[in-house]
Write a structure and sequence with these properties.
Elements (H helix, E strand, L loop, with lengths): L1 H15 L1 H34 L20 H7 L10 E3 L15 E3 L1 H7 L7 H9 L11
Antiparallel strand pairs: 1-2
């Protein structure tokens, strides 16, 4: 009985000052939205680290990945005793002429060491040899 009276009292109070009720609901909604947004941002940052390769480190130009690092850095990295293999990639922005507006990742790679570093790329040996011997060759996945 007491709970019913409290609920009725609360409902009467909500209707008493509608502007205060609106501000309270809006404040709670903003607080919940902010919390969810911050949790999503934190989750996205940590998720990238969780799915990244644990045995690999990448470096890039401080301005953007489109600008290349000097090629001599590859030789410098290969001389470090803990480094097993090193390679480089260069984004070049290639496009399919039939679909000028569509974008997908296009990387020029250093073929002698590319498959040593990215050992998760599974290709049959004949296709791998064909790619490595053909300078303008490309590897295109099933989805693309």
């Amino acid at each position: 009985m007491v709970l019913l009276q409290l609920a009725l009292f609360g409902l009467r109070n909500l209707r008493w000052n509608r502007f205060r009720t609106f501000l309270t609901v809006a404040g709670v909604a903003v607080a919940i939205l902010t919390f969810v947004l911050l949790r999503t941002i934190i989750w996205s940052w940590t998720m990238a680290a969780e799915v990244a390769a644990k045995d690999r480190i990448a470096t890039r130009h401080k301005v953007t990945f489109v600008m290349t690092l000097p090629r001599r850095y590859l030789a410098d990295l290969q001389q470090i005793p803990e480094v097993k293999s090193a390679t480089f990639l260069n984004w070049f922005g290639g496009k399919d002429p039939a679909h000028e507006r569509e974008f997908f990742a296009t990387m020029a790679v250093y073929t002698p060491t590319f498959f040593e570093v990215y050992d998760e790329i599974a290709l049959p040996d004949d296709q791998k040899e064909a790619f490595m011997s053909d300078r303008p060759g490309a590897i295109v996945g099933d989805v693309l």
